[in-house]
Structures are given as structure tokens and as C-alpha cells.
Amino acid sequence: MMMSQKLFSEVKNNSFPLDLKEIPILKYDLFYEQVSHFLESEAKHCVAYYGVAISGILKFFCYIADDNDKSIAVFSHELDMDKPILKSLTKVCTQLQIFEREIHENFGVEFNGHPWLKPLRYSYDRFDKSKIIGNYPFYTIESEELHEVGVGPVHAGIIEPGHFRFICNGEKVLHLEIQLGYQHRGIEKLFIERKDSLQRCILSESIAGDTSVGHALAHSQLIESIAGIEVSEKLQIERCIALEMEKIAVYIGDTAALCGDVAYQLGQVVCEALRTLIINSTQLWCGNRFGKGLLRPGGSNYPLSEDVADGVLKIITDVDRRFCEVTDCIYSLPSLLARFEDIGKVTQQQALMSGAVGMAARTCGIPRDIRITHPFQFYRSFSIQQVTLETGDVFARGILRNLEVRESIKIITGLIGIWRKKEKGINKPVYNYELKQNCIGISIIEGWRGEICHTAITDNDGKILHYKVKDPSMHNWMVLALAVRNQEISDFPICNKSFNLSYCGNDL
Amino acid sequence: MLKEIKVLKSHGSQYIKNLRTQPVSGLFRGRPVISGDITTQEIENVSAICPVKAIDNRSGSIDLGRCAFCKECSFLLPEKIRFTDDYRIASNLRETLVIKPGSENSVRLEEAIVRKEIRKLFKSALKLRQVSTGGDNSCELELNACGNVNFDMGRYGIEFVASPRHADGIVITGPGSENMAEPLEITYKAIPLPKIIILAGTDAISGGIFDGSPALDRRFIEQNHIDLFVPGNPIHPLTFINGIMDLLGITP
After folding, report:
1. How far apart are CA A230 and CA A153, in angstroms?
2. B235 contacts in A (CB within 8 Å)?
3. SS3 for A19?
4. What mean pLDDT comes out for the span A169-176?
5. pLDDT value at residue B251
6. Please, are residues A274 and A252 in contact by the beta-carbon 8 Å criterion?
7. B134 shares a domain with B90
């Protein structure tokens, strides 16, 4: 029998916003059946699943991206706040566990059958204030043979805070639980409260400062989508160049950190210096080493000039050669390979179940790269090479960075060639935009960590009613926890560095 | 072995010889200069667009402890406000971070109020413990960069250490998240006396764009004596290193 009822709305990334009224609201049983059916396919994964409280009713939205046909399906259901009990989808789709935890923390919805309904970030406006960050319910195993190791929230190096609790048998890690929330700043609420558009730009750059360009691009793209602003191809190219530069800088920095952890000073020092060259080029372009201020809706304060483009090309050509030389050393030294190979292994099945995105997915043979699967900005007109590896270990994550730095350098070179042929003229940023009313905008981009999603719902007056940020780390922290199982605890730092996940991106 | 030699040859010498005078590239947004003849109307206009309320709507002065360095005021009034590439903007006195119209003066440390024990004890070696309280990881990365092959502040005995028990002071980044309030307090208490507190970045100094968020708890920052304010979004390594050199009285 043909289904006559429309079950979901479909949208393409980087396109028009959806009219709220058009999104079908399913009964939960049907929602459950549809979402679990959709997520059976390996080409589909959940981008975001969240709740919004609107006048006593909890509205839920679930975005499922289909990598085969470049579409995003939006499912919705509603719940009366008086009876907040739902059957957990986590049992059938493990990747939804983190989203159900978030909904539970924010609204107190009980997900029956969820095995791990623990606080995600201890947000200030959480439903149950009696849950406090100093009293997280860690998983324990009663045994005289085992011991626990607690690390953090303040770590040994200059990094962000988070708590890691290991259960070990001797040197071997049986289980790792990662507890976050220390970095919570209430970002999503600030996006609604700060009515000024420039304030929102600054906020987006501060979600994760190591991904300033990525998050600011996701925000700008979202605003442009809801406000119906078109930007020129020339500006789109510049944005892609900025994004690739951010990626190159971080990946080279990560390579330095990996070398540091295995006491290979040459690799560390040389990669640190190469990263400096890249971020100084970003500063040459926009005055900030992290690209803060570069991305704005509708236009740019810092159009790329011929001089800067020449400077960038010169630097990346030099970096390409030197990075090639040093990685040739790094990945051929037996003493280093012994520390990288077969360490922190994640299987493809684990990655799929966790809903891994970005590098964590691509090193397990899962071709998830939004630049290719749901292209945005100029990636829609520019073909790039998908890089995937199969082994899922620290070595794969190192080599993937190595290959993708090369690829990004090729992309920038190609993009600058096209950029030169485009007509001159880039608009000033637009801050006095009007947003379309009663709609939902979805913006997804591929940051260096993976898929970043910004999404917003507008009300009757075109004001932002709800703003949601999804950093790729939200999916990938679980992958890290799985990667260290049965590893030596002394290998934890290198496993952690090989993922380089964001604390503030998760905590918001 | 030959491969390594090739790498070293390409690497060459990367360290910055003079951290006091090193020029920075491009359009770096450092200390602003506000024209003395900025009008009342112009002041109102720029203070209205400032996303972090760093511009006083009466005097027209810019508070670098609040400034997000987005430069939008300068884009609006390019003839009246410009951001120079002067990165030496750290100070031990909060008020000196407020740049008044007409002032071309550099931001300088107030020598008279530097605690005596700081120079006596820490001048030749200062070990610091960093704590991120909601920092977005850009200031954290820049603090890491202070010790790297380019900036190498270790040449003056200034280093970050893992344990607060080994530290002489604390460097705070981020706007002061409520969830980090207790760990911050515990870390600070674990540092032996005498100890210093440094705030790195606009977020730490004033809360920055997060000022007023109910998710913050800034009591520790507000109730303790701060020895050095390092503005920036994020801080530039040269701002941080020069600030500490000034605080310790290091003259290269």
C-alpha cells in the first residue's frame, strides 16, 4: 500500500529554510519506527536531535543526513510536558545516545531503556539542579583486582578541563568514562538573548576558538539561509580557503603534539614552526592568527587581496615541501611507528554505532566529509579527493592528517586559481538582516574536526526562538572512550591527542 | 640520518631574537588610537555598535579589558579610530587598559604597584600553572605557543608546569565558568606562597562576550588581587611574554 502521509521534510544543505508548519509532526511510535528504519543504512547518520519547549509543549526535531543523495531529512514529534516519558531510541540506534542524554538533561524527559542517561554538560538551566558537577555518577566495577584512576578536570598541560575516570587492571584500561561540562558558558541561550547580530558573530567565533573559522562560517551560512542573502562565488571561495587554512594549521599542530607525546623532538619542533607560518598567514590576511573577524554574514571586512593570495601561496608551497620532509621522518622511524600502529584502535562498527564524524569516521573507512557528501559554499562547484583509511588506530589518524594537509594545500592552490578569474568586488558584512518568520534553518559545514551544525528556529516576528550548535566532538568523545579500551593507560595521552576533541565545543 | 639533516636545514633558525621589537605581520589588531577630535555623535555611534560594550558612550575611550578586537568601530569610523600593531598592551593596573581619545601613549606597567617579592623571587625563574575556566582554546593555544620554538619564553626562565605545587602563580583563561569555580579555587590554594595571578585574554579580564551569562561565576577573579592583565582575543604570545617581562623587570 502506498503511504499517502508525508513523514518528513527534506532539505539540502546550504539552501532555503524550512517552513515550520510544513514539517510533519509524527506520533512518537511512528517517529521511532521511521528514525530507526532510516538509521539502518550506513550512508545515513543523525546530525542533530533536540527539543524545544514552546508554550508547554516539547517539540522535537531530528535531522538525518543521507550521504548518497546529499539530502537531509527532518523528522519531528511532540510531547506534553506533563508526561515526559519516551521509549529510548538508543537501544536500536546507539548513535542517538548523546542526543537523548542532552534532551534528558535539558527537559527531564525520561527515555525508557536508555542505559546511560547521565548529565552531558551540567548546563546552568538544566532540568534537575540537584545534579551537580562534583557528583557525577561514574560507572564502577566492584573488584579487588581493579583500581580506578581519575584525571582532571585540570590537566597537566595547557588544555581545557574535563574529567577522565579509568578503570584499570594493572596497566590495562578496561573502561574509560569521560565527564565534561566544566567549560559550559551558556552559549546557545546567549545566541537567543543577544539580539545584536555582531554579538552573535563574536559568539560564534568563541564556541571553539580553535575552530573560529568553522563555527563562524556555520553561523554566517545559517543567517544567510534564513535571511535569504546570497553571497558571491568569489566570497565563497575565500571562505573555503580560510577553512582549509584552519585545517592545515591544526593538523600540523596535531602532528607536533603527537611527536611531543612520543618524545620525538625534531618532529615536534619543526611542525610547531610550520604551524606558526600558516597561522601568521591568516594574521597577514585578517589581523588574527585564528581568523577571528574574518567570517561575517553577507560579506567580508577582509576581502582577500592579490598580495595576500600571493603570500598564502608562497607559504603553503614552502610548508608543503617541509611538512613532506618531516613527516617522511616521523612515519618511517620504527621507534615511533611502534607507538602509533595498532594503538587506540576503533573498529568500523564502533565508529558507526557512535555516529562518528570527520576524521574519526574517515580513519575507519567511513566516507563522511560534508564538503563532499553535503557540499556547501564553493565546494558545490569544486571537486575534492576523499581521503579514507581503514585501520582506525593512532597511526591512521596521524597519516590521515598528513594526507589531508597535502590535499588542502592542493585545494587552496586550485581555489586561488579560480578566485583570480572571478570578478572583483566583495560586499561589506550585513548586520541589519531580517530573518524569515516561523522557519527552521539548517547549516552544516565540515570543520577540521568534522561536521559542525548550526540550526535556528524563528518565531512570528522573525526573532530567533531557538539556536542549536552541534560540534563534531559531541559524537566523537565516545569514540575516544572506546579507543582506549584494552590499551596501556600510558598510551592514553597519545590516543587523546590523535583525536584532539573540543571540550568547549561539547560544553557550549 | 640524512633525512633528518635535510629537515633541520629547511627548518633553519626559527626563534625570535628580540621579543620586545619583533614586528607582527599584516593587519594585527593591537592598541587602538582614538582621534582627539572624535565628536559626541560619533562616540554614540561607535559605542552603540560595540558588541562587548568596550567603548564608553560619554568619553569615547576604549577599554582593552573588554574589547573583542573585532575592529568594527574602526570600520565605521576609519578616520577617527585605528588599531595599531602595538602588541605591548599588558598591564598590572586595570585602569591603564582604558585608552582615551587623543592618547598615543603605549600601555605601560605601573612600576610602583608591583609587589616587591615578585621581582625579588621570580625574576630569574617563574613557573606558572594555567587554568582554563570556559576558555575557548584559542588563548590556551597561544599560551602553549609562548613556549614554542618561535617565541621560546623559556629563555627567561618563564615556563608552564603541570603541578600547582611547583608553580609560582596561576594564569587564568576564559570568562570564569561556574562549573570551573571550585577546581580553580582548589588549584590556586595548592600553589605555595607567595603567588601571582595573571588574567590572559579579554574573556578572563571582563567576561568578554560572555559577560552577564548566568553560566559564569567570576567571584574568584573579582575578589583576588590580579598581578597582570593581558588583553587580547586571543592574547598574542608577544603580548603575554612582554607583559611578564615587564612585571618581572626583565630588560633584554
Report:
1. 44
2. none
3. strand
4. 94
5. 84
6. yes
7. no
**A45 beta partners:** A65
Note whether A187 and A172 are within 8 A (CB).
no
**Is the CB of B165 inside 8 Å of chain A's CB atoms?**
no
How far apart are the C-alpha atoms of B81 and B86, rounded to whole Å? 14
Domains in chain B, number: 2
For A124, which of B26, B150, B178 is closest by C-beta distance? B178
* A504: enclosing H helix or E strand: helix A503-507
For chain B, percent helix, then strand, then coil, each to nearest 5?
A: 35, 15, 50
Residue in A183, A302, A325 nearest the CB of B177:
A183
Look at residue A498 and tell me whether its pLDDT is greater than 90. yes
Looking at the complex, report in whole angstroms how far the Cα of residue B112 sits from the nearest Cα belonging to chain A: 31
Q: Could you tell me if residue B54 is inside a domain?
A: yes
Which pLDDT does position A3 carry in this prediction? 54
Range of the domain at B46: 32-99
Element of type H or E holding A39:
none
Do B124 and B234 fall within a single domain?
yes
Same domain for B116 and B146: yes
Can you list the residues of chain B whose pLDDT is less than 50?
none
In a shared domain, residues B210 and B93: no
Buried b / exposed e along A401-422 (16+ C-beta atoms within 10 A): bbbbbbbbbebbeebbeebeeb
CATH code of B211's domain:
3.40.50.12280
Cross-chain residue pair A198–B72, CB shorter than 8 Å: yes
What domains can you pick out in chain A, each with its CATH number? 9-120 (3.30.460.80), 211-467 (1.10.645.10)
User: What is residue B52's predicted lDDT score, i.e. its pLDDT?
Assistant: 95
What confidence tens digit (pLDDT) does each residue in A385-430 have? 889 999 999 999 999 999 999 999 999 999 999 999 988 878 999 9
Please give, rounded to a whole number of angstroms, the shortest distance from the CA of A172 to a CA of chain B.
24
% of chain A surpassing 70 pLDDT: 99
CA distance B89 to chain A (A): 16
> Considering only CA atoms, which of A203, A183, A206 is closest in space to residue A193?
A203
Query: Which grid cell is A434?
Result: 531580517
Best mutation target among B53, B138, B235 (most A Cβ atoms within 10 Å) is B138
B218 within some domain = yes
A vs B: CB pairs below 8 A = 199
Interchain contact, A276 vs B209, CB within 8 Å = no
CATH number of the domain enclosing B81:
3.30.70.3270
Are B76 and B121 members of one domain? Answer: no
Say if B26 falls within a structural domain. Answer: no
Q: Mark whether B83 and B153 lie in a shared domain.
A: no
Is A159 in the B-facing interface, judged by CB distances under 8 Å? yes
Q: What is the mean pLDDT of chain B?
A: 93
Domain co-membership, B150 together with B41: no
Over residues A344-363, the pLDDT tens digits come to 999 999 999 999 999 999 99
The pLDDT of residue A1:
43
Which tens digit of pLDDT belongs to each residue from A371-383?
999 999 999 999 9
